[in-house]
């Protein structure tokens, strides 16, 4: 494997530097999403195959980002590519813009896998899925506000774009967090519509929910924060109990955990049935997708037979309050659903997810052993085929606990790992795929050891 040598701005990644400078002339910050940027510039990729990425300079990387976890079968799995090709040949187009049979087929899979899903609506992203779930909750309860947990991310729209990664000097008390906006362009009114809750603190969470019960339509959370900090069992069951009592819709954002914790997501393992579930990432097999599933009585609020079509030129006598609008030209795109179904069929095969979880666990244990040998406090946190490296030995149960992590050392190690051909955007979680093989794991552990040898003497662990 070729290695990136030298700094990210030297001749080894000259092609990436030049491509980035070109992009900056026409794309703000040189990227199409803020999350794709890291200093001094991101590495620009040219192609990919299996567990590997190849940049414009020809360097190879073992990929642990996998499009932020979406590619659970790796890059370009032959069966996924074949399904896409076959679908286009069979239907003779790229998209119908009408109903088609794969919509019900994939929806049936989701109702089989996910305990909290009776019916399904498809969207084009996880963001759209959480947005629709919140709209359904508001319509169902007749209440306006929502509650989310500190440190949890549900997309880039106003009502949930609070306290994802807040400055603790502005975030208030740990048992009563203050909403901290994560973007400019948000109004003071936005702040009043979202209550921030402390994750894995049932007593404080219940107190806040009871205080705001008459206003709250929904509580939305990642059952595994950031994909790597699991909810404690007593917490998640207690949250389900109190939301049912208070008539607050419970929404599980399983965009990250869907198909990675289990085929039925975190809810299947916890034994908790949320009212609504948002899905994305793995579900699309590498294409943009989202889905909302939930209780029949809630999902039927999107039924177009209940009210008028707001985009129709024909006048309707129905009042607009009858309408819970949800639409999208590309919802249920046949090529996307074909890729998603092919991915799910691979994951359904006996032993596939068990093998993937075992492989992930093996990498985690080997990495922990290496860091222990070098005297660096470290633990891997996660579930299923996703985890993160946290440089502290102290318990980590929520966002605030992450501030015990030695992030300066982690960042330095991540940059060195990039130079050694291990691709994780600095400070991000690891996602595994069925395409990763034993040689990838061994090479990854060797790279971490090399990085520790080089970085730790210069940047001692605290």
UniProtKB/TrEMBL annotation:
Catalytic reaction annotation: (S)-4-amino-5-oxopentanoate = 5-aminolevulinate
EC number(s) given by UniProt: 5.4.3.8
CDD domains: OAT_like
InterPro entries: Aminotrans_3, Aminotrans_3_PPA_site, PyrdxlP-dep_Trfase, PyrdxlP-dep_Trfase_major, PyrdxlP-dep_Trfase_small
Cleaved signal peptide residues: none
Species for this entry: Novibacillus thermophilus
Protein family membership: Belongs to the class-III pyridoxal-phosphate-dependent aminotransferase family. HemL subfamily.
GO molecular function: glutamate-1-semialdehyde 2,1-aminomutase activity; pyridoxal phosphate binding; transaminase activity
Source taxonomy: Bacteria, Bacillati, Bacillota, Bacilli, Bacillales
Cofactor: pyridoxal 5'-phosphate
Official protein name in the record: glutamate-1-semialdehyde 2,1-aminomutase
One Gene Ontology biological process: porphyrin-containing compound biosynthetic process
Biochemical pathway: Porphyrin-containing compound metabolism; protoporphyrin-IX biosynthesis; 5-aminolevulinate from L-glutamyl-tRNA(Glu): step 2/2
Keywords recorded for this protein, A-Z: Aminotransferase, Cytoplasm, Isomerase, Porphyrin biosynthesis, Pyridoxal phosphate, Transferase
């Amino acid at each position: 494997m070729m290695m990136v040598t030298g700094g990210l701005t030297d001749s080894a990644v000259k092609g990436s530097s030049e491509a980035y400078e070109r992009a900056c002339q026409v794309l703000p910050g040189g990227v199409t999403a803020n999350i794709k940027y890291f200093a001094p510039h991101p590495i620009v990729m040219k192609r990919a195959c299996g567990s590997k990425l190849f940049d414009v300079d020809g360097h190879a990387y073992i990929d642990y980002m996998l499009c932020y976890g979406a590619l659970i079968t790796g890059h370009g799995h032959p069966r996924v590519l074949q399904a896409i090709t076959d679908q286009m040949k069979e239907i003779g187009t790229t998209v119908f813009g009408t109903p088609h049979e794969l919509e019900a087929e994939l929806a049936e899979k989701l109702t089989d896998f996910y305990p909290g899903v009776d019916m399904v609506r498809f969207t084009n992203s996880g963001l759209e899925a959480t947005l629709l779930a919140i709209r359904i909750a508001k319509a169902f309860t007749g209440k306006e506000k929502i509650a989310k947990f500190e440190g949890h991310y549900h997309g880039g729209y106003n009502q949930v774009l609070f306290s994802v990664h807040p400055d603790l000097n502005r975030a208030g008390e740990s048992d009563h967090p203050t909403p901290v906006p994560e973007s400019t362009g948000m109004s003071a009114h936005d702040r009043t519509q979202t209550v921030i809750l402390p994750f894995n603190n049932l007593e404080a969470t219940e107190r806040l929910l009871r205080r705001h019960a008459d206003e709250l339509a929904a509580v939305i959370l990642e059952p595994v924060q950031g994909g790597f900090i699991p909810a404690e069992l007593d917490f998640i069951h207690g949250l389900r109990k109190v939301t049912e009592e208070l008539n607050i819709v419970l929404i599980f954002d399983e965009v990250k955990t869907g198909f990675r914790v289990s085929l039925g997501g975190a809810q299947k393992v916890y034994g908790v049935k949320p009212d609504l579930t948002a899905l994305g990432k793995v579900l699309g097999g590498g294409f943009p997708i989202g889905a909302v599933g939930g209780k029949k009585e809630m999902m039927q609020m999107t039924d177009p037979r209940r009210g008028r079509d707001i985009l129709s030129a024909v006048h309707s006598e129905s009042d607009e309050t009858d309408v819970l609008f949800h639409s999208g030209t590309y919802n249920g795109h046949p090529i996307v659903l074909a890729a998603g179904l092919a991915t799910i069929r691979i994951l359904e095969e006996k032993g596939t997810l068990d093998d993937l979880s075992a492989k992930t666990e093996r990498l985690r244990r080997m990495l922990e052993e290496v860091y222990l040998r070098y005297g660096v406090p470290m633990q891997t946190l996660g579930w299923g085929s996703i985890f993160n490296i946290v440089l502290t030995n102290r318990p980590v149960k929520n966002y605030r606990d992450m501030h015990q992590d030695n992030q300066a050392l982690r960042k330095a190690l991540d940059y060195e790992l990039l130079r050694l051909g291990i691709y994780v955007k600095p400070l991000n979680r690891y996602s595994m795929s069925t395409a990763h093989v034993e040689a990838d794991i061994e090479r990854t552990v060797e790279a971490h050891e090399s990085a520790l040898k080089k970085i730790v003497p210069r940047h001692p662990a605290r």
